[in-house]
Amino acid sequence: MGIANEEAVKEFRSLMEEIDEPLKNSYKNMHQGYPTETLVRFLKAREWNVAKAHKMLVDCLQWRVQNGIDNILSKPIIPIDLYRAVRDSHLQGFSGYTKQGLPVIAIGLGLSTFDKASVNYYVQSHIQLNEYRDRVVLPSATKKHGRHIGTCLKILDMTGLKLSALNNIKLLTAISTIDDLNYPEKTDTYYIVNAPYIFSACWKVVKPLLQERTRRKIQVLQGCGRDELLKIMDYGSLPHFCRREGSGSSKHYRNEGTDNCFSLDHEFHQQLYDYINQQALSKESTSPIKQGSMHVDFPAPNPGDTEIMKTIQTEFHKLGNKNGLANSLKGVKVNGD
């Protein structure tokens, strides 16, 4: 870290000493004993501008306090059939670690349908995964490797991506905005695999619109990306959709059983589910477990992100018309819930 950056951290740290007690408590929960690394993340996200990074972090802490984020890991999505439906339609999971000890998060963007529950359940589930990563997975990786591990790596599977994905843009924008504003600089690299033509064509247009900081983190790999990913992780940590060429079909997903890291039957999801239920039981004496989703405020999307989403929509429509797929656009509600 350069001298100027060290000065920025020092200034930021002294500003954080002046925040209210409820925000301080949430901050402690958030930094997990690594306050300096947390300040650096927010400074990076705001190009080392102390005033902007301070506003970003205070806004984040207020969001946490107002929405009860510090207690979200004691709020199970019940009954279990509803939670299974959420898992089956919002495909994300954990498949292992890189050789450097970074957790590998898998996301099935192409086949996620987001059609089995209300938006609030998907947002709640996503934030629970973020919080479990930050409060359980990363601290245990840090302990295991004897050095601070504060970031993960994400592999985005585009298998099955269709024009109808436009229906989910509103929800995906809400989730990515929550991540950008409240969990900045938590992902080292995004690897995109199993990208169909429709994604590749959009990517050419969208890539120049992204911030340089974001663009540097995204790598589009050939096919299922297996050979490239094996340079940084062992075979056992590869998500199921990266294990062999042509393995990315939805049929393959459904038959993977406990190897499918998206499935509720996978070891990671079982641990997460048990953890949330244990936390809920320990708090049940003070308040009974209630059914129903937590309502978390969605921050307004970044104007730049909104522009990118509009560009993606335009490109999807162009592709649809070019390939005679205009009919499959029927029923696609670009601004629908």
UniProtKB/TrEMBL annotation:
It comes from Quercus lobata. InterPro entries: CRAL-TRIO_dom (IPR001251), CRAL-TRIO_dom_sf (IPR036865), CRAL/TRIO_N_dom (IPR011074), CRAL/TRIO_N_dom_sf (IPR036273). PROSITE patterns: CRAL_TRIO. CDD domains: SEC14 (cd00170). Residues 82-239 form the CRAL-TRIO domain. This is CRAL-TRIO domain-containing protein.
